[in-house]
Amino acid sequence: xxxxxxxxxxxxxxxxxxxxxxxxxxxxxxxxxxxxxxxxxxxxxxxxxxxxxxxxxxxxxxxxxxxxxxxxxxxxxxxxxxxxxxxxxxxxxxxxxxxxxxxxxxxxxxxxxxxxxxxxxxxxxxxxxxxxxxxxxxxxxxxxxxxxxxxxxxxxxxxxxxxxxxxxxxxxxxxxxxxxxxxxxxxxxxxxxxxxxxxxxxxxxxxxxxxxxxxxxxxxxxxxxxxxxxxxxxxxxxxxxxxxxxxxxxxxxxxxxxxxxxxxxxxxxxxxxxxxxxxxxxxxxxxxxxxxxxxxxxxxxxxxxxxxxxxxxxxxxxxxxxxxxxxxxxxxxxxxxxxxxxxxxxxxxxxxxxxxxxxxxxxxxxxxxxxxxxxxxxxxxxxxxxxxxxx
Length: 391
Known about the structure:
Layout: H1 4-10, H2 12-24, H3 33-46, E1 50-54, E2 57-65, E3 68-78, H4 104-120, E4 126-134, H5 142-148, E5 159-166, E6 177-179, E7 182-185, E8 187-196, E9 200-201, H6 211-229, E10 236-245, E11 251-252, E12 255-264, H7 267-287, E13 291-297, E14 303-305, H8 307-321, E15 326-328, H9 339-345, E16 348-354, H10 379-390
Parallel strand pairs: 3-4, 3-5, 5-16, 6-15
Antiparallel strand pairs: 1-2, 2-4, 7-14, 8-12, 8-13, 9-11, 10-12
Helix pairs in contact: 1-10, 2-4, 3-4, 4-10, 6-7, 8-10
């Protein structure tokens, strides 16, 4: 029987080198030619059975065909970075104005490690593994693009797994791992509302229709949708992040625009928040003699882990790490993750691999000093390979 844990531990240095190479050349969105070439080259060296990329196809898909017939398991990793300047001081720090400040460099390296393990034991593998290397997660466009390009076809997937590393969830020590049944991460949607009125002199407000006043009323009322219309057992967030209107303190502007984000953990709450946003803004504008135009953009849906898949994930994690190092994630995060688009299509399980230090070296995600504890990277390939061999 292939010793997944031992092989993964022996491979950790190689995973670290993959991660450092990716870290030094971060790219954003779909503009990722250097990253994609590196991943494809490494997959060819590893010896997967088939690689698909380019020719208008977004992302990279690779197949590993097992020695016995069975179902098709997708394993996904994102690889895009953020447009921000790194301030870690690492010898492999990026210098191109972008930064891997969310762990996607590690995700891609870990999936390469998973591919290496599974090619070495493909005779024991039942079914087919479909590796998904995905760009453009940070703007939520990568997963829908890969779905549009046919990632669920030829062959169709029966389930999908993946992980997030870093320090998203508190209470974990290096060398541990976390799972959660049901909602793990929130839907992340975006809105822009423009209130229109009639501008004029600030000394004669009665001759105007004030859109700034409309925006202020709407912002206050939107908070009541969470505190008075949403169950306290079903978390939600409505954040107005920008408000733009007017040019001078003695001029009433003809228009005012607000924009923000809505986060939710259930499809029902998500739909209600959208409906109430549109209703409140429209009604407030009309009540104050103006009008409002509302633009709503869907981001990733809630990331909901399938119970059956997650039970098997928990078992694989405990087999690799022991029961004492595997814990349930107590609370979901209101951060979004476009892995959720894949898990809308097939049952899936997304787990947490903390790569923190547990001390002052830990910085939050999207921080210019964000870094990872590389000593635990082997856990990701070990768990995912174990899952693939036993699910």
